[in-house]
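Hi W., the magnesium ion complex you wanted:
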Amino acid sequence: MSGPRGKAMHLNRGRKPKDAGKTIKRIFSYMKGYRGHLAAVFLLVLISSAGQIAATYFLKPLFNDFILPFVGMQNPDLSAFIRMLVIMALIYASGALATFIYNRLMITVATGTLYKIRTELFSHMQKLPIRYFDTHTHGELMSRYTNDTDALRNMLSQSLVNIFSSLVTVTGVFIAMCILSPVLTVVVVLMLLLMLFIIKKLGGKSGKFFMQQQASVGKVNGYIEEMTEGQKVVKVFCHEDQSKKEFDKLNEELFEAAKGANTFASMLRPIMGNLSYMHYSITAIVGALLAITRGLDLGSLASFLQYTRSFSQPITMMSEQFNAILMALAGAERIFEMMDEKPEHDEGTVTLVYVQKDKYGDFVEVEHRTGLWAWKQINENGKVTYTQVKGDIRLNDVVFGYEENKTVLSGISLYAKPGQKIAFVGSTGAGKTTITNLLNRFYDVPDGSILYDGIPINRIKKADLRRSLSMVLQDTHLFTGTVMENIRYGRLDASDEEVIAAAKLANADSFIQHLPQGYDTLLTSDGTNLSQGQRQLLAIARAAVAEPPVLILDEATSSIDTRTEALIEKGMDKLMEGRTVFVIAHRLSTVRNSNAIMVLENGTIIERGDHDDLIEQAGKYYQLYTGMFELS
Ligand SMILES: Nc1ncnc2c1ncn2[C@@H]1O[C@H](COP(=O)(O)OP(=O)(O)O)[C@@H](O)[C@H]1O
Ligand SMILES: [Mg+2]
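Structure:
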């Protein structure tokens, strides 16, 4: 992956699109459902541009056939003249109407396309392996859904159609100008080349500034996100000034980049405005000379002058949209890059099903919960076998590291027989949580094997493997929602009664009853309105409601007082009956009654046995237990 946390973000941001053609093609593939809309937009743009060009062209007969002959006439017949004006007005109006409709249509196309992209991005994100989240910051991932999507929306709803319409208009106007007066057209084109040259001079560096601006926005956002999350730590260590200083530095960078980018944009407008006035007057002078010397008619001159205005405007517009498009494409590439990340690899075919015993004592698969689970294996010749899920887990010589060349676990072998309680104790960083990460395949084991009821776990479908292992993770996470919903997260089809029973088992019921709305109390942002210990109780209840064959508790009771812990223990003992349990705990009283205790040190098991064995061995465990050695 892209190295340590955060780094990837800064490397990725602020670069130009790598392969614009490919990216555009891919964006269009999301617009397939809108072929009708796009065809309509195409036609409407043509109509709108044609309307503009035609209405201007009408100035010629208006001058030549009406206004000029009328000059000095006593009672001119105005009816034909008025008819002409009405026709012109109608053409203008239909052009404006077409513009209005195609803009509306493009908004539908853009929002619909982004809806699709966001949906796909989110559902893909759900499939990404934990490893991906290890190496990408939240801020970076968030900005795919905000900044990058926004840039893309801008391009789809405005830039694309603007550029297309500008191109059509410029082409049409050019043709009309050539018809009216080829000589004047040459003058206009020369002036235009001069304008383009100036844009290039002014804008040469601006693209870089626009990219920098986007990069800086990303950095500022990331920093704000980190500081809001860590606000308490900032305050506790009186880091406000320091964090403000760091923010100022990033903010300064953003300021410089934004200034560079926007100075160009704001300079371009007035300069181009002035240039186009100059352009206009020069054309007018040359036109007047032509009218005198070459007999250019006044009507043509009037139309032509009008055209010069609608010639330079789209060109300025296109140059302005160019940066927006570059940014949108770079954003789209980041979005697609995330979509192309390999999803969690799952070659598992063994599934978890509910079974019942028929009258011969054989297993039959059923839909509803029976309390009996089986692994369903289909072998090559299509024969289905059911193996009862017992919760027998064996690790054979497991070697693992998160990064290459850095071993975290070196040769772990252990077994847990069904219904046994296995405990891991050891210093922080010894690798306890890592073992549980391997059991539910957050990470895959390169060496050695893990067997679950005799089946290598990489042959079991990940979702089913995880359904069979209920976990209380070391850092509890609660979602915005009610207490009831948060516990039900463990098993979505659990009834209210089952949820409450699980809460009672975890000894969470009594504190929940005291919450303002009991089980309907809304928990906000990770349950900050609860104490750490209360959050752990909910997490235990969540695991309990799943009623899984294997239960893993990673420091699940570390923030719970000893009295409550003793109460939970009773409930848990009931829950643990007939289940295999892995417990990780700091407090040795919690693990005393385990069938086996593994003492972990630097990724190896240095002692194992039950409590009495270990005390007898008088090793590390003995020291820990008797308080001769403190767990760090
Ligand atoms: N996602 C990760 N990426 C890289 N290294 C990790 C990751 N998680 C843990 N580690 C490292 O693995 C080692 C064991 O961590 P862990 O299993 O969490 O220890 P503990 O026994 O305290 O639960 C530590 O040295 C830690 O730095
Ligand atoms: Mg841990």
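Residues 526 and 612 are 40 Å apart (CA to CA).

W.
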